[in-house]
Write a structure and sequence with these properties.
This protein has a domain at 8-100 and 172-258: 3-Layer(aba) Sandwich (Rossmann fold). 35% of the residues lie in helices and 25% in strands. It has helices spanning 48-56, 82-89, 111-122, 129-138, 144-149, 157-169, 187-204, 215-221, 249-258; strands at 8-19, 22-33, 37-41, 63-66, 69-72, 75-76, 94-97, 175-179, 207-211, 224-229, 232-238. The protein has a six-stranded mixed β-sheet, sandwiched between helices. Strands 1, 2, 4, 5 and 6 form a five-stranded antiparallel β-sheet that branches. Strand 5 and strand 6 form a beta hairpin. It binds adenosine-5'-triphosphate (ATP).
């Protein structure tokens, strides 16, 4: 599985993340294809956020990571220069949609200046008021001009998260990490944001790592599901014939607790 493949955004085998001698991830293999929505599920503390931080290249300093083979965007992450490349890609080829929409914005600066600044660095042709207002309309903001002139606190959580989805998806990032991106939102807004996110991911052929406890959403949107338990990858599920068919007891249990359709035992 560790072979380099131009269809893959990430291929890693034997990923271990250690805190001292305690593994937070223990010899895990992941393959995230280009254009794929790859969900990561598992109970609290199973290592989902650790995986997202690792992929961002932002593990806490007290943690140590090692792997057998690791290809990121087809480049082998070994030898010389790989860590500088990773640093350079963070925020450009790899982006994060945070759990709390409030975390994505500076609280004292208007949305307009933050969006223009972001695009001026990452996608200069979009750094234009009129183009951004059109994008705001496209992502379903009911009053794009008011949102443009607002400070972050005067927008709802759902409105802020829509803008963060827009920034990630229009920044040209190829790998997008979304760590429980809708957990701070009500169910209807959450569903709308996930529809928007998955629609844009498919349209723009980006790879999305979608970390979530909401198995109903995961089952609807994901192409692949990695199931973690206490740092071990217990199962990787692929979507076949509109159903998910977990084989391990642990994954079955997670699916049964949520008892969402369509699931065939
Ligand atoms: N910097 C760190 N140092 C030591 N242990 C850590 C560190 N960061 C996380 N952990 C531990 O690693 C384990 C996995 O944490 P992680 O946040 O990845 O889990 P998670 O699956 O994302 O959980 P949740 O669903 O609750 O967000 C937990 O036991 C956590 O306490």
């Amino acid at each position: 599985m560790a072979a380099r493949n131009s269809e893959d955004a990430v291929v890693i085998t034997g990923l271990t993340v250690l805190s001292g001698s305690t593994p937070l991830l223990d010899r895990c293999d992941f393959r995230i294809r280009k254009g794929e929505i790859h969900a990561v599920i598992g109970e609290s503390g199973s290592g989902k956020t650790t995986l997202a931080n690792f992929l961002l290249g932002l593990l806490d300093r007290n943690l140590e990571s090692r792997w057998e083979d690791f290809f990121l965007f087809g480049e082998k992450m070994q030898g010389s220069g790989w860590s500088e490349k990773w640093k350079e890609w963070r925020g450009k080829r790899i982006s994060l949609i945070p759990q709390s929409p409030a975390l994505g914005f500076h609280p004292y600066r208007k949305i307009s200046s933050q969006v223009l600044e972001y695009f001026s660095v990452l996608q200069p042709e979009l750094s234009d008021r009129q183009i951004c207002l059109e994008l705001f309309e496209k992502i379903g903001l009911s009053d794009p001009k008011s949102a443009w002139d607002a400070h972050p606190h005067s927008l709802s959580g759902g409105e802020r998260q829509r803008i963060l989805v827009l920034l990630s998806l229009y920044s040209n990032a190829e790998l997008i990490l979304a760590d429980e991106p809708t957990s701070a939102l009500d169910p209807i807004t959450s569903r709308e944001i996930l529809d928007l996110l998955s629609g844009l991911v498919r349209q723009k052929e980006r790879s999305l790592v979608f970390i979530s406890h909401d198995l109903g959403s995961v089952s609807n949107f994901a192409d692949t599901i990695s199931v973690l338990k206490r740092g071990r990858l217990v199962e990787t599920l692929s979507h076949s014939f509109s159903t998910w068919a977990p084989k391990t007891d642990y994954a079955r249990k997670l699916f049964e607790i949520d008892s969402f359709p369509p699931y065939f035992a």
